[in-house]
Design brief:
The complex is a heterodimer of chains A (291) and B (383). Chain A has a single domain (2-277), classed as ABC transporter involved in vitamin B12 uptake, BtuC, CATH 1.10.3470. Chain A has helices at residues 2-32, 39-56, 61-84, 92-114, 139-161, 163-173, 175-180, 185-211, 217-232, 237-257, 262-277, and strands at 129-132, 135-138. Chain A has a two-stranded antiparallel ribbon with strand order 1-2. Chain A is globular and about 60 Å long. Chain A is 74% helix and 3% strand. Chain A is mainly alpha-helical and 291 residues long. Chain A is built from eleven helices and two strands; from the N terminus they run H-H-H-H-E-E-H-H-H-H-H-H-H. Chain B has a domain at 41-250. The chains are: A mainly alpha (291), B mainly alpha (383). The interface between A and B is large, with 59 and 52 residues.
Chain lengths: 291, 383
Amino acid sequence: MLDFVQQLVSGVALGCVYGLIALGFVLVYKATEVVNFAQGDLMMLGGFFAFTFIGMMGLNYWVGFAGAVAAMALFGMLAERVVVRPILGYPQFSIIMATIGLGYFLRSVSGMIWGTDDFKIDTPFSQGVLRIGSLVLAHDKLSVIAATVILCALLWLFFNKTMLGTAMRASSENMLAAYYMGIPVKRVVSIVWAISAAVATCAGVLLAPITFIHSNVGLVLGLKAFPAAVLGGFGSIPGAVVGGVLIGVIESMAGFYLAEGWKDVAPYVVLLAVLLLKPEGLFGLHVRKKV
Amino acid sequence: MRFLFKTDYEDDIRLFPHSGYYVSYGLLLAVLLIAPYVLSSYLMSQLVFVCIYATVGVALLILTGFTGQASLGHAAFLAIGAYTAAYLQKYGVPFPVYFLAAGLLTGLIGALVGFPALRLQGIYLVIATISFAFIVEEILARWESVTNGNEGMRIKAVSLFGVAVSRDGPTFYFLCLAVLVLTIVGTLNLLRSPTGRAFVAIRDSETAARSMGVNVALYKVKSFAISAAITGFAGVLFAHKLSFISPEMFTLQLSIEFIIVILIGGTFSLHGAVLGAIFIVMIDPFLTYLKDDMPGIIAGIAATFGAGTQAAANVQSKVAAFASLNGLKGAIYGIIIVLFVLFEPLGLYGRWLKIKLFFQLFPLYKRATFKRQKIYVKSERNR
């Protein structure tokens, strides 16, 4: 039983990271119907930025964190401006390819700049553990869970209660109609990319004590975040986090209880099952096209 | 310029619309046939890879280019073909038999993948095919009694009519070339048959195709099966060329490379698969060449522009250091993909058509002919 709870908590923590990356997917998807295959790499880059600020320049953890988030938000805007804006409105597949190319580029360049070693960021919660009875919970895992819940709540409020959020939802429904209604679609898209890069950075920094930062971390985790986003229904903010947590728990349970090899495959098996049985995901909307 | 006057449908679907085609393709064939006796063994080996990649590219074009079903899982089909060949060869099955068996099995698995894919569209399909590829990769690594796990499998040279064919010799190249040419001709014939027209109809509008009486489900599964089978054939050749296969060769990276092949070549014509394959395979030797020779060349240029010997040497070492950076290849890959998507969405073959049209219409060419139309689609969620 204790093992089970222990696995559950570490699964939830891991799942929250998936959820945070999936949040990035969902944000961009919600606003532009574009799936950003470079999301994981944005997370990796955010982690490296934070490492540079905190580990190399010796800034305070929170200052470095905020600096990395701000820098990555700008970078997200830049990436949108250069790679996505020119092909907005073209078939989705070309945009997917463009973001795959962006991902390649980011991975290689960060490999060139920071090398291929694993990096670790010292955080205020690296050491401590919380003991409840004989249950031992590391602070770094708890911090991930807490941050995910807060971010998710903030983003949900932002999308549903603010004018900008409403504008984003409108431009995702129908870009042209949104434009006619006076919504500056281009600026909206740019802001969405900034937000999703910032969220990715949060994921990267929180992740750093758990899995370390290296130039391929984005690819590995980004691909795990897909099942999370699909499971939650591509396009639902709470769905992304719930999907992420489910995937994380499934993965860590499969690693603990099932034979070796299941750990890596289980998320994808679940994903295929979801796609077959309920393609719209747990929280997704599914409307048939009316002719 | 030449005007083709067509009086019936048969004229429209001829493989060689006019006599010029016989000349140009005849010349191409002649060049390809004498290539192994002229080129160096390294370039020959690359040419074999071009044939294999182009075969996969054609397979992917059938599915992605003509049926509109994106797939990022073709490395898995390639792997299934390769492993089937390696496994059957171990039990002494002759080459023609396991070649066909590999294609058949892969086609069957492709059809099985196609069934669930019926319900999926766009991004969901991409993700599903990625998952399929991951699962296959993991199975290959774990099913040790058949696949030998992560240690991989050795595969002996092809033996045709009792004679072993070296994987570096011209005979193997001719074999790959023959497979490629047969695939291309077969695909061309497929595409001008009712099946091919149904594929294109599904790509352009599924709703419209269905209302015209096209059995969308059937043709999607067919497209998956055919595409997978061709990839399986290519997998057999791939395994023979490498002579050693292991699960980590068939990763997402390879699937992405295949997509890049058709993306760079152009997704609307079979020429694209071949051009894209040439590009992808030849970029390696090109980058190696740049890495080895570029520093010297740049230093030479610097010297001619009046830089001192010391400065030139300095430049040379700097450029050399940059060229030997670890991730440079990946970065160049990334840039190439992005640039093609942004500026040359029709691919290399599209560029070729533009250049051709420019000379045909000489003073009258206008760029808008090839301009893409933006479609600010309504949400895919409401599709």
